[in-house]
Amino acid sequence: ILNFRTSYFLGLIAILLCSAGCNDKNASTAKKENRKPNIVIIYADDLGYGDVGAYGSTVLKTPNMDMLANGGMRFTNGYASSATCSPSRYALLTGSYPWRNKNAKILPGTAPLLISTDQMTIPKMLKTQGYHTGIVGKWHIGLGDGKVDWNSHISPGPKEVGFDYSYIMAATQDRVPTVYIENGDVVRLDPNDPIEISYKENFPGERTGKEDRDQLKMDWHHGHNNSVVNGIPRIGFMKGGEKAKWVDENMADTFLVRSQNYVKAHKDEPFFLYYALQQPHVPRTPHPRFVGKSGLGPRGDVIVEADWCIGEFIKTLKEEGLLENTLVILSSDNGPVLNDGYYDDAVEKNGEHTPSGKLRGGKYSLFEAGTRLPFITYFEGTIKPGVSNALVSQIDLLTSLAKLVGSDITTPDSQDFMDVFLGKSNKSRKNLVLEATSRVAFRKGNYVMIPPHNGAAKIKSVNIEIGNDPEFQLYDLSTDLGQQNNIASEKPEILEGLKMEFAEITKG
Ligand code: NG6
Ligand code: CA
């Protein structure tokens, strides 16, 4: 039995706690209402339409991506701008079609910055509205002016493109330099062991994957036989920088922790984070705790790992009380590939899994699987969960996000689809130009037209049909999602209409 004094005292404490709690809650709600929403783009590398549970994968389980898809808007007609990485990333950030820039191709690690420093970008637009901006993960749109000295400050780069904070790999996991760069400086660089990089020739005395083939941790299938780092042969030659080299198996954790730290450091101001995952691009190097988890070999395991990272990242947003004030966008830069240059069992252990879902082609392809990808928007308390078949593209994010944050900045190719991304409208893009390895195709309504392209119909090394045909191809995706029936000769008037509109958009 409590005496009067004790219960009075406890009551007082309860009142104090409650009022403190209530005030806090009111204060933080008020703060959130006034505050512009945080924006996070989680961008996977080579994740296919069929690699995600919510998009039909049954073999491979992706519970965290599914949580975003089922709790947000899941787009079934969401596109990247290109079927390869650098062009898609360029278009995502600039809101400009990559085929307008002749340099927007898969870049070597030594390529100069692809985005001109006076070009508008998502982070630059957001900075005009008071945002702090950060990128963690894969960059792959060039650095410097073409003559980068990796041993001094590297610029122009993320900073000049609009990112206040950056923790990146320069190109891809399979390309040198195999080091992290934080705010323009190589992490853990030892000045006594300077880094030299070449994509032309080896450095005297350095071993390569070609010579040391029998000593490799992961053997190369095509390409990827230059410098060996951590037993994995790469594209390009590298000398020095021993202490700075990344540990491939730790890369997922490294990027995750930097992303979480970024959120914690900037939770009191509106922020934009571009979290560019490296999975499931080659070389696929899951942390040991994910090895064997998918049953599909390393490709499946790194997707499970990426899914876990996404879950942990969302947990951080939640713990920091930011989930209801953050728009999360999840997508991928291009379609899937199994064998992309290493013997890593991706083909052998794929089993019944269909990385492209019901779509034709894959990475490098003008067929649907090259650019139609998982595309999810999630905003707890703001987006009512749903599925949308509206035709949307990553190229529209610049103008759409501008709308969201109260900016009128736009670029010619990028249109406002914010209501669609928030699930309030089902309006489709009028049309969309798709690109793959410097070739283009045209989508309008349910039709897709692929102009004649010479060259092999299939890239044999990766075993992907890339859409080349000497004749015009026309597909009706409403009845033929898998692009099996070319109806160009049956529907000449539709073909002509598409040709004219396409010529108008791509001219000059
Ligand atoms: C190709 C590589 C491939 C991958 C791709 C870029 C060879 C033979 N193949 O040239 O492995 O690195 O470039 O992928 O070198 S992307 O997702 O960054 O576009
Ligand atoms: Ca990619």
For this entry, give a set of tags.
508 residues; alpha/beta; ten-stranded mixed beta sheet; four-stranded antiparallel beta sheet; 10 helices; 22 strands; 25% helix; globular; binds 2-acetamido-2-deoxy-6-O-sulfo-beta-D-galactopyranose; binds calcium ion
Write structural notes for this entry.
Helices cover about 25% and strands about 15% of the residues. The chain has a ten-stranded mixed beta sheet with strand order 7-6-5-4-12-1-13-14-2-15. A four-stranded antiparallel beta sheet has the order 17-18-19-22, with helices on one face. Strands 3-16 form a two-stranded parallel sheet. Helix 6 packs parallel to helix 7. The radius of gyration is 24 Å and the shape is globular. With about 500 residues, the chain is α/β, with parallel strands linked by helices. The model is unreliable at about 20-30 (pLDDT under 50). A hairpin with a 2-residue loop joins strand 6 (about 180) and strand 7 (about 185). The site of calcium ion has 6 residues, from loops. 2-acetamido-2-deoxy-6-O-sulfo-beta-D-galactopyranose binds near residues 85 and 106.
